[in-house]
Amino acid sequence: MPKSDWPTLAEAAKTEGITTEAMRKRITRGQVDAQKVGNRWRVNPNSLTRQDRTETDKAPGQDRTTTGDGGATLREVVEAQRAHIESLERELAHRNAEVRELHEDIAAMNKQLTVALPAPNDDASMGQHQSGQSPTRWWHRLTRK
Fold first, then answer.
1. What is the pTM for the complete model shown?
2. Residue 93: CB partners within 8 Å, gap ≥ 6?
3. In 10 A of CB 132, how many CB atoms?
4. 43-95: pLDDT as tens digits
5. In degrees, to the nearest 5, what angle opens at C-alpha 99 toward C-alphas 94 and 103?
6. Cα(133)–Cα(145) distance, rounded to whole angstroms?
7. Beta strands of the chain (E only): which ranges?
8. How far apart are CA 13 and CA 57, in angstroms?
9. What burial letters (b/e) apply to 24-46, b meaning 16+ CB within 10 Å?
């Protein structure tokens, strides 16, 4: 097929369902074989059939629901992420309930301790001995023999 029969850049882009700018980028990257004939670019139609579309090459308004790698659709990925988020929210709610229970247990134990322990002696809390004298510091006892 003579190169003059090859589709123009705009025709090839339309055939591929991409913008002319995306087709230019493919040519620049060497993904599509094209040659300038006169003042127009002509695209080798054989290089178009081998080209996989990527999300960035698609024309405006085209369906962009696939991930571009032949894998799951974007909707499937979003649904999987939503399910994961829901499981994490359930786990967080469970952990929050555990934390509340622990706080309640600690409060109950503190209450039991205040009831079980005797109140401090006012003299002892003021640093006074029963004899009315201030307590001897440990280093004084060591040095005054």
1. 0.35
2. none
3. 7
4. 988 888 644 445 444 555 555 555 454 556 888 888 899 999 999 999 999 99
5. 150
6. 19
7. 34-37, 40-43
8. 9
9. eebbeeeebbbeeeeeebbbbee
Reduced to 3 states, what is the DSSP secondary structure of residue 38?
coil
Task: Give me 72's structure tokens.
Answer: 């799951």
Say whether 75 sits in a helix, a strand or coil. helix
- What tokens does 35 get? 């040659």
What six digits make up the tokens of 41? 């670019």
Residue 112 has phi, psi (to 5 degrees) of: -65, -40
129 phi, psi to nearest 5 deg: -80, 165
- The pair of structure tokens assigned to 78 is 């979003």
